Amino acid sequence: MLEFAYPASTGLPYIRMVVAALEWTAWPLAIVVVAYIFREPMGAIFSKINSISFPGGRADFAQQVLPNTSLEANAADGEIGGIRPFSSIDRNLSPAQIEVRDRVRKEFSELDRGDLVEVLYATVAQERLSRHFAFAYANIYGSQIEALEVLNQRGGVMSVSDAELLFRKLQEEVSQFANVTLEKYLGYLVSFEMVEISSGIVKLTSFGKDFVVWLNALGLPKDRPL
């Protein structure tokens, strides 16, 4: 290919320099843009990686964070899944929150005391359960979400033997679970009171059913790591 020299006064040499610079930065810029767009799901993945080794592309994922006690015990201690208790929530409201609060106050003024107390109980219960689910979702595996959905589709009940068969298939697909027992795998869901294991039966609790509904209602991604 012939190369022609152009006088600097024409501006063409500078244009060629700009084009060359754009060609050189195209892929780095594309990577930055993609990383920004997918920053949340990528952040969830990278936050669970303990180490990466090459060649071979091996990644070791961190263990899940389990709550110390049950929902009721945490509530008694003033915590739900490590989240601040209701009594210590920051009272510095934003302008929009103040506006909504004033509307709620007006609505409450039209209720008798008995109805008002029940509304408050229900509101706190919904908020507390949502916080519980949010903390569970932060560390849950994608396969555990799928397990809850499968259990829900089967009427909320499955034998431990059937669960073992499904878990063996998962172990074949995900090497990180090769040395994990079914009991330990389900331990995360048990600790968040989403499933119960008793007398050879795995049962989906009311919390587990509501968690599946909560996921679908918010449209949260289910294809999480592992």
Shape: elongated
Q: Roughly how many Å is the radius of gyration? A: 26 Å
Label the CATH architecture of the largest domain.
Orthogonal Bundle
β-sheet strand percentage: 5-15%
Sheet with the most strands? 3 strands, antiparallel
Order of helices and strands: HHEEHHHHEHHEEH
Q: Which sequence of strands runs across the widest sheet?
A: 3-5-4
**Helix share of residues?**
55-70%
Output the CATH topology of the largest domain. Answer: Arc Repressor Mutant, subunit A
Keywords: Membrane, Transmembrane, Transmembrane helix
Structural commentary:
By secondary structure, the chain is mainly α. It has three domains: 8-61, no CATH class; 65-135, no CATH class; 140-226, Arc Repressor Mutant, subunit A, CATH 1.10.10. The chain contains nine helices and five strands; from the N terminus they run ααββααααβααββα. The strands form two sheets. A three-stranded antiparallel sheet has the order 3-5-4. A hairpin with a 2-residue loop joins β4 (195-198) and β5. The relative contact order is 0.10. The model is unreliable at 73-84 (pLDDT under 50).
Quickly describe the structure.
The chain is mostly helical and 226 residues long. It is 58% helix and 9% strand.
Key words describing this protein structure:
transmembrane; 5 strands; 3-stranded antiparallel beta sheet; membrane; 226 residues; elongated; two-stranded antiparallel sheet; mainly alpha; Arc Repressor Mutant, subunit A; transmembrane helix
Strand and helix map with partners:
Elements: H1 12-37, H2 39-46, E1 49-53, E2 58-61, H3 71-77, H4 95-109, H5 113-139, H6 142-153, E3 157-159, H7 160-173, H8 182-191, E4 195-198, E5 201-204, H9 206-218
Antiparallel strand pairs: 1-2, 3-5, 4-5
Transmembrane segments: 14-38
Keywords: Membrane, Transmembrane, Transmembrane helix
